Amino acid sequence: MSLTIFTRKNRKAILILAIALVAGAAVSRIPFEGLSEAGRLTFGIFTMAAILWVLEPFSLYVTSFIIVILAVILLGRSGGPLGLTGSGYMIFLNPFFSSVVVLLLGGFVMAQAVKRYGIDTWLSRKLLHRVGSKPGAVLLGMMVMCAFLSMWISNTATTALMMAVAIPVANTLPGNEPFRKAMILGIPFASNIGGIGTPIGSPPNAIAMGFLEQAGHEMTFLGWMTIGIPIVVVLILVCWLVLYTLFRPKIDTIELDVSEETESLDNRSKFILVVFLLVVGLWLTSSLHGIPSSIVALIPFVIFFGLRLLDDDDLRELGWGILFIVGGGMSLGVAMRESGLSEWMVSQIDFAAMGTLGILFLFAAVAAIMTTFISNSATANLLLPIVVGIAAISPVSSALVVAIVSSAAMILPVSTPPNAIAYGSGHIEVRDMAKSGTLITALSLVFVTLVIYFLF
Amino acid sequence: MHINERQGTERARLERCPKCGANETKNNVYFRRGKKIRIYIECAKCGEFVSRYTLSGYTSDKSYESILARMRTIRLNSGKRTLDMVEGFGKDVRGEYEHVLELIRTQEDNRKIEEIIEDDLDGRTD
């Protein structure tokens, strides 16, 4: 609770904002050879956004709107360096209601309904009591459940739900039982990985689809899942193997406190499940019926709010901040493309000499390092406008590598919200997460890069 | 924030039974799938209905379990902010609890709760 404006936190935020603006202004004054005035100004905005997204003096979505304000004032005003007139500046606002933002919004609505009516809890209980009592099977069962849920609901909500199942079990294990750490780490790791599976599973996926769409390469929901699901399956198995090997159980059996007799779903919950399956079905068959995925995404919005299954409180909880982060990143991408900054940036490195595999590995490594310390959406927002402009490789492959690796890096508690939640349980130390997370991140990076390389 | 900075902008009071004036109450918690949790406050002395609260967040003495419940209702994108929330959650709640008890001891607001909500909070309850 804060009742004054200039608190210590806010003073720090204003100072960082000032530093970011000064740094941006300084960069925009450097006379880079071959870069237009619009490009230099955009480089300044990019620099400022990078500082703010890395240091996070305030919520990430605030930076999104600072980008829009500066882009319109510096580039998009009538008579500005981009030569836009009248409502031409709307190119910076349009991304906030672009098709991928609407797609995410629909995903958020469905996730909200699933959560509110307890369908996620019901499903997890229904399936988890079948995993038996062998430690390896219990861990794998929990991880598969996490991965599946996080394809459709947020990775954070999935982690919170499953941690509530894991913590009571972990508390009953002996103090020196290493497998407790495997159970606690398996949940956030599997949630991070599961988010890769669908376009709505994690914001970087939607951001990648948005940038590809801007570059004229449309990727369908089914197209994403065809690549995403096999990667999720392999990474879950790799992750399970790493955790099982590093934290091998001393105990022979483990019991999850999940009752076999779960309460059955009521009619409203069943209806929501039917709508959910219908919408997913329409998403997967968009090439047959021709209805864009973003328009399909509006169907659950109309049905759930229209029939009062969701209300104004649910509307407030929809994760607007994430939608604004995606919109802001794509707005920055528009500025970089229109000003020629993307093209200029990629022209500064001889990517052709590196070969396709070399380029993919380079950006996978950069994405992994960045997202270890900053938000995966911020990583995607900063890297994707650059990588989709590299002429030496397919934009689809570079965008997929950056988006997927952004979700697969999980070394520190600050790397992702699920990691932070698991760390907060007190059952693991940073070195436990770093040891297993580094191995999984490295294996994921190599695997994802090679898969994308051979696919495209 | 220092307590002095809050003075004049915050209120606290014990809820009392409108019938007998007792401040001993019982919380009857009502759960229904798909609906917000509601708490019906009953006078522990005379059994009269005192008030009803609609729950938007819940924190128990087991703060980690409470934060898990909270995390299911919000969408977060930053590991840093999530970690701040997780680490600060229990401490913030405990600290504010102590502060509220102190306020009630030293400067309890004697108006009815609905008057405080209407007059000082413009009808906002959350």
What does this structure look like?
The complex is a heterodimer of chains A (456) and B (126). The radius of gyration of chain A is 23 Å and the shape is globular. Among the domains of chain A are: 1-92, no CATH class; 99-317, no CATH class. The mean pLDDT of chain A is 94. In chain A, helix 5 runs antiparallel to helix 6 (135-150). Chain A has helices at residues 8-29, 37-55, 60-76, 99-116, 119-128, 135-150, 155-172, 179-194, 203-214, 221-246, 267-284, 286-289, 293-296, 298-306, 312-316, 320-339, 341-347, 351-373, 376-387, 395-408, 417-424, 430-455. With 456 residues, chain A is mostly helical. Chain B is of the alpha+beta class. Chain B has one domain (3-122). Helices cover 40% and strands 14% of the residues of chain B. Chain B is built from 4 helices and 3 strands. Chain B has helices at residues 3-6, 63-71, 79-107, 113-120; strands at residues 25-30, 38-43, 49-54. In chain B, strand 1 (25-30) and strand 2 (38-43) form a beta hairpin. Mean pLDDT of chain B is 85; it is low at 1-5. Chains A and B meet through helix 4, helix 7, helix 16 and helix 21 of A and helix 2 and helix 3 of B.
Whole-number mean pLDDT of chain A: 94
Radius of gyration of chain A: 23 Å
Helix fraction bin of chain A? over 70%
Query: How many domains of chain B?
Result: 1
Instruction: Outline the biggest β-sheet of chain A.
Output: none
What structural class is derived from the secondary structure elements of chain B? alpha+beta
Could you list the spans of chain A in which at least 5 consecutive residues all have pLDDT below 50? none
Q: How many helices of chain B in DSSP terms?
A: 4
Principal-axes geometry of chain A comes out as globular
Features:
heterodimer, A: 456 residues, mainly alpha, 22 helices, 71% helix, B: 126 residues, alpha+beta, three-stranded antiparallel β-sheet, 3 strands, globular
In short:
With 456 residues, chain A is mostly helical. In chain A, 71% of the residues lie in helices and 0% in strands. Chain A is built from 22 helices and no strands.
